Amino acid sequence: MSNDVKIYRITGLMLIAQDKLPRWQKFIVEVRALKPEHAIEKVVSEIGGRHKVKRSNIKIVKVEEISLDEVQSKYVKDLSTITYMVI
């Protein structure tokens, strides 16, 4: 695959259960992207879709580029080590 794709670890907070008892829940997500802006957009989109959280209720705290050795997500690690794909 392309060497331009990097792996980012994004740390942030999301507001859960606005109607009842609001609380900020911490999250850490690892994604592959070309730029940090693309990684943030992907994480915000995934969290919003999965947890029904509005974009205004998601706060990104830290975005860091990590090496393949530091990756904890099995999915991201497997996707990064693919040499070829048959469709």
Automatic annotation (TrEMBL):
The UniProt entry's sequence similarity note says:
Belongs to the eukaryotic ribosomal protein eL20 family.
UniProt KW keywords: Ribonucleoprotein, Ribosomal protein, RNA-binding, rRNA-binding
Which residue positions does the secretion signal occupy? none
Q: Name one GO molecular function term.
A: large ribosomal subunit rRNA binding
- Organism field: Ignisphaera aggregans (strain DSM 17230 / JCM 13409 / AQ1.S1)
HAMAP family in alphabetical order: Ribosomal_eL20
* Annotated Gene Ontology cellular component terms: ribonucleoprotein complex; ribosome
Q: Does the keyword Ribonucleoprotein apply?
A: yes
Q: How does it assemble?
A: Part of the 50S ribosomal subunit. Binds 23S rRNA.
- UniProt protein name: Large ribosomal subunit protein eL20
Q: Set out the biological process GO terms recorded for this chain's protein.
A: translation
Domain (Large ribosomal subunit protein eL20): give its ranges. Answer: 5-64
* Claim: Mitochondrion is one of the keywords in the record: no
